[in-house]
Sequence to fold (990 residues):
Amino acid sequence: MISEKALNAILMSLLFCVPLWAWVSDEPFTITLATRAVIFALAAVGLNVALGLGGLVSLGHAVFFGIGGYAMGILAFHAQTYSPLMEWPFTISGTKLMPVIWLMAILFSGAAAFIIGLLSLRTTGVYFIMITLAFGQMFFFFAISWPAYGGEDGLSIYIRNSFPGMNTLDPIQFFGICFAILSLVLWLNVRLVKSPFGLALNAARQSSERVEAVGLDPFRLRLIALVISGMICGLAGALFADLNRFVSPTMFSWQMSGELIVFIVLGGLGRTFGPVAGATLFVVLEHALGGIGEYFLFFLGLLLLVVVLFARGGLYGIITGRADR
Amino acid sequence: MTYKSIAIAASIGMLATGAFAETKIGMITTLSGGGAGLGIDVRDGFMLGIKQSGRDDIEVVIEDDQRKPDVAVQLADKMIQSEKVDILTGIIWSNLAMAVVPAATAQGKFYLSPNAGPSALAGQGCHENYFNVAWQNDNLHEAAGAYANTAGYGNSFILAPNYPAGKDALTGYKRFFQGNLAGEIYTELGQTDYAAEIAQIRASGADSVFFFLPGGMGISFLKQYADSGVDLPVVGPAFSFDQGILQAVGPAALGIVNTSQWNKDINNPTNSAFVESFVAEYGRLPSLYASQGFDTAQLIVSALGSADVSDQDAFRDALRAAEFDSTRGDFAFGPNHHPIQTIYAREVIQEGDVFTNRIIGVALDNHSDAYAADCKM
Amino acid sequence: MLFLMAAGLTLIFGVMGLINLAHGSLYMVGAFAAAAAAAATGSFLVAVAAAIAAAAMAGVIVELAVIRRLYVRDHLEQVLATFALILIFSEGTRWIFGSFPLFLDIPSYLSGPVSLPGGIQYPLYRLVLILVGLLVAVGLWLFISRTRIGIQIRAGENDREMIAALGVDIGSLYTFVFALGAALAGLAGALVGAIQSVQIGMGEPILILAFVVIVIGGIGSIRGALIGSLLVGLTDTLGGIFLPELFKLLVAPDVATSTGSALASMSIYVLMAGVLIWRPTGLFGARA
Fold:
């Protein structure tokens, strides 16, 4: 059995080395796959702040993922058609600069998380799951039928957005950007868990009353957790849109929210690096099983079921030999 | 994490010759989940065409996009970056096509669309390497509008789901229909209950109904419409009346007129041979989508006959010439690489136990599309 | 119709404290079984019976194999396991029946419109549906409140251990409840299949609707499910008709139709969010 820390190190270096190897041996598609895994991991890490740490089972995190995607889509769309985003009260034009896009994605998804949180954190348990699902569906239908940005057809961005000093169209460089962001967010996440806020949030998950008794407001703690979580998902959404050079309402769908939860549980609930393992495993599986034929979803379902029923700690649980956190 | 490439194509049996294949075709289509029937038809029609060409230097790689744009983009990346295909084809849905086609053509690949024809790719977004072998999205709706004029309808009630293709459909119908509109509604995408819409139709005083509700939505609408007692004539594009779907609609569709560029009774040798061999190969009647897949394969084979795909300019000219025997009879490309073709009005009939279509007339002769003028190639 | 679906779901949801995303799949199983039986025998009644039987069977199998292990788990794992079941059911059905929609029709003795007093034409089949819905509602209510099993179910809802200690076989009781919920979904699938399309994935949109209904109504409340389904149905229909009209007064007709419809498709979710904000446990929900 391997310790969790060692496993974290192995996982991250694997995730880093495989694309490097692919780069050397000229297999650009493997790099694309790895980038996809890294971005999914980032989104799952975001959800994990709310889910693993805050105990908030949200079936609506695709909202933030989608908002991030559309932040990128809309800004880049205006940049590529040279039409201003807004002319009143002052002119804002689109942009193709990644850092600006990221900032907008984070701001908007954070704001959405704040509003949704204000409204939905009054409920608990199953009702919370359902109300987040309802918000997810609202955004989904809105995106499908809103004609200005393509509706169901989505938006195609022909050229990947730029980052100063780098050629983002080169798969390995884009991978590097995503990997760096993931590492940064993971590092912040570790800090967060150990911070007074993280400890309080964790306590609020276990017993809301006790936290209240100490004079902390669990509602505020959860709201902050949801906002942070939304921001990370938004950032992941913007990167995902850039990877595909395309955004569409499917980013808002409840299946997307479901998949994010799948990543976390596959990897191991309540572990900082669990989502990374889960997302990687999912992407690998998606491709390995895709080869079985048309019915691979059937097997994916079976596998998921087995993990949920018999391997509660997910991948991390199996490897480190500890089922519970 | 090495990726193992999969060619389902090999299952057909004659293509296990990858080693000396000279032309590699990537097909991204929908084979699982909702809407898989269309992708399977396109694939089967296409593979039949390749098989009948007798060429063993064409390799086809087939992958399932699950009807998800992000999966389709990823598969396209894979086919271009690691499979190194020369030609891409197969996508069924407009939103997936919008996600894949611009990127593929920008990377110097040919894309031949066997189904989707979004207006953006026909007008300003057209590209010299993009060919549409099926139709521009508006075409069949325009034909429905034209047919409504000939049939003498003067007051139509029109409905479609609230998404881009739905709006294109109503725009297309209105472009040719000269009468008045008794009502115009957008329904929810994926809606299954049309009681409210049917009540509105009943109250509107219309003399005809035009609808575009693809897939299960159309089945639901037609069944409920037939049961409602409203007996206004209905016109629609072929999508809700095609071979795969018609058996599920049943008697509710009988007698309805729909517009299509293909039907199994179009009288030419290519078509009869196609219908016969398709039935022999797969044990079911071919659909519109199967004919489009077949024509796409035929077009590629004909172009390969006169040019090599590595010589892009020559190959493009060969494609543009479209010198192949289409199941639709006459076929030519317009300046924006979209078909100029005749669109028929056909009627749903019953042959024994099977519901199918019969051509009753021409809706639009040698029709092009409304966007060709915007295309600067 | 939505009520049938929601009633089955709320039974499972409330009584057993289980989130079952696979309920829509049971609905689909019902519709496919009905279509297959109708094609084989030509009788609609046989088809409906087959749908109920097949869905209940599937329910029992799923309960014994999977769901049984989930009662003690948290919501997250329930969501996930039943999400996996959706994938298995959808692709499994496609494997068996192929990718094309199946045919299921209204029997001739129930088709066609009837004239209601006041001269309104209304399809007979829809009247029958409403009737069946009401019958099930009354039947369920009698069953839950009057029969011995009903009492046990309600007791189990409050305290699993206690009722087990009293000598009731809680395991088979739950299997029964789950099968009952599944049978209701199957019935709904067969009845609706006749006027809609029988195809893969047909369960998912209605699943979400059913969740909306029971959450609005309050989890575990049959009465809530009934009121909830009425509310959702009304909002959806009226929103679809009146919102575009309303917008026509404000902006150009073209924009109005599309904007109005866009908002209409969101309206039931707005309703649900509104209800939950106002009453965090739904209209008739007692427990959090």
